[in-house]
Design goal:
alpha+beta
């Protein structure tokens, strides 16, 4: 069961994140409009302040799409 207090805390943290990174929600909206579908590869790369790069990727499955849709519905 979801804890309402934690949901409000997460909402506040998300709002601050969006203020700091206003282009990121637009990116999420773009991929939510069909850019990610089964077989797509999602890659994440992190570069530390020292320049070290760490990356990983996943090939999206049908169950991943279902999860993304559920999360998207919860966020509305």
């Amino acid at each position: 069961m979801l804890n309402p207090t934690k949901l409000f805390k997460i909402k506040g943290a998300w709002d601050r994140f969006v203020q700091n990174h206003p282009k990121f929600p637009m990116f999420l909206q773009a991929i939510n409009r069909g850019a990610i579908r089964e077989g797509s590869i999602v890659e994440i790369k992190v570069t530390t302040p020292e320049g070290k790069e760490i990356s990983s990727n996943v090939k999206v499955t049908a169950s991943d799409i279902e999860l993304f849709q559920e999360i998207s519905e919860m966020a509305k």
